[in-house]
């Protein structure tokens, strides 16, 4: 059996959509009898998904960005990937929640001759690599056993940024929290066409402010449509203020929802 380690480079939130795919893969490998470890940013209250991973037999290495470490970095280089020397996995799976990001992790595996798979979750046409890093990123992506993207558009954009066809790349779809064969009945008439937006409420990535501005247009205000925003995030109050400022009564906030199948049974469309 193999030793597989999953390296999450997410340092912004305790848990997010970029963690779901690797987490499901980790549980799948544990059930097959493989030895699984994960490296994750330390948070005061760790995500329950990490606790469940440990309960299933996985080992979680929490990375701490302490004040002492930050002081040491000012005076001498610190190898942030030294823990790989202890684990010595047969394969590393590195999740990049954003781009460009985690070059040191990719290169850390390459230097140690640890085979690695890359998984890039989020890209933006407004974020490009700099001259000094372009060749390094190209080498890091081409050096992966497989480099995975969650959409074709993401892969096409990164091909342009690193000027490479990335023949070792593939598209792997993110999982969703509804049975594949689910076929909910069309919701009963309510007087409104009900649409739902399900996401973290964070405007840079999700663009929910554009939705609010669109629904503020007179022709949309005049239509029997209601949009419910499900989820939470660091800019919910900002978005609520924008909704009030633009006087958009067709938008409401539904909070966090765990039963996604039931949610879709009450709505006519996803936006």
**In percent terms, what proportion of residues is strand?**
15-25%
Strand arrangement, major sheet? 3-2-1-4-5-6-7
Span between N and C termini?
43 Å
The amount of helix comes to 25-40%
Low-confidence stretches: 66-76
Structural class: alpha/beta
Helices and strands in order, then pairings?
Elements: E1 3-8, H1 20-31, E2 35-41, H2 48-55, E3 59-63, H3 67-73, H4 83-87, E4 91-96, H5 103-111, E5 116-120, H6 131-142, E6 146-149, H7 152-162, E7 169-171, E8 193-198, H8 203-206, H9 208-215, H10 218-221, E9 225-230, H11 236-245, E10 251-255, H12 260-265, E11 269-270
Parallel strand pairs: 1-2, 1-4, 2-3, 4-5, 5-6, 6-7, 8-9, 8-11, 9-10
Task: Please characterize this protein's 3D structure.
With 271 residues, the chain is of the alpha/beta class. The protein is 35% helix and 20% strand. The protein has 12 helices and 11 strands. The strands form 2 sheets. It has a 7-stranded parallel sheet, with helices on both faces. Strands 10-9-8-11 form a 4-stranded parallel sheet, covered by helices on one side. Strand 1, helix 1 (20-31) and strand 2 form a beta-alpha-beta unit. The protein is globular and about 60 Å long. It starts with a strand and ends with a strand. Residues 66-76 have low confidence and may be disordered.
């Amino acid at each position: 059996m193999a030793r597989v380690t999953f390296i999450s480079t997410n340092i912004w939130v305790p848990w997010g959509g970029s963690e779901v795919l690797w987490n499901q893969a980790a549980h799948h490998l544990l059930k097959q009898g493989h030895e699984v470890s994960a490296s994750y940013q330390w948070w005061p209250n760790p995500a329950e998904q990490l606790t469940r991973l440990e309960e299933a037999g996985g080992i979680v290495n929490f990375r701490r960005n302490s004040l002492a470490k930050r002081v040491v970095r000012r005076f001498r280089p610190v190898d942030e990937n030294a823990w790989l020397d202890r684990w010595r996995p047969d394969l590393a799976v590195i999740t990049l929640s954003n781009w460009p990001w985690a070059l040191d992790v990719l290169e850390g595996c390459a230097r140690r001759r640890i085979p690695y798979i890359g998984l890039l979750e989020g890209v933006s046409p407004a974020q490009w690599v700099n001259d000094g890093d372009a060749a390094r990123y190209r080498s890091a992506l081409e050096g992966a056993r497989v480099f995975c993207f969650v959409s074709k558009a993401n892969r096409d954009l990164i091909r342009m940024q690193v000027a490479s066809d990335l023949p070792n790349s593939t598209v792997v779809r993110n999982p969703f929290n509804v049975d594949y064969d689910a076929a909910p009945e069309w919701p009963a008439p309510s007087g409104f066409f009900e649409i739902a937006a399900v996401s973290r409420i964070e405007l840079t990535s999700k663009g929910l402010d554009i939705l609010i501005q669109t629904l503020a247009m007179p022709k949309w205000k005049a239509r029997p449509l209601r949009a419910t925003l499900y989820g939470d995030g660091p800019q919910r109050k900002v978005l609520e203020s924008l909704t009030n400022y633009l006087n958009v009564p067709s938008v409401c906030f539904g909070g966090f929802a765990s039963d996604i199948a039931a949610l879709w049974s009450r709505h006519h469309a996803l936006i």
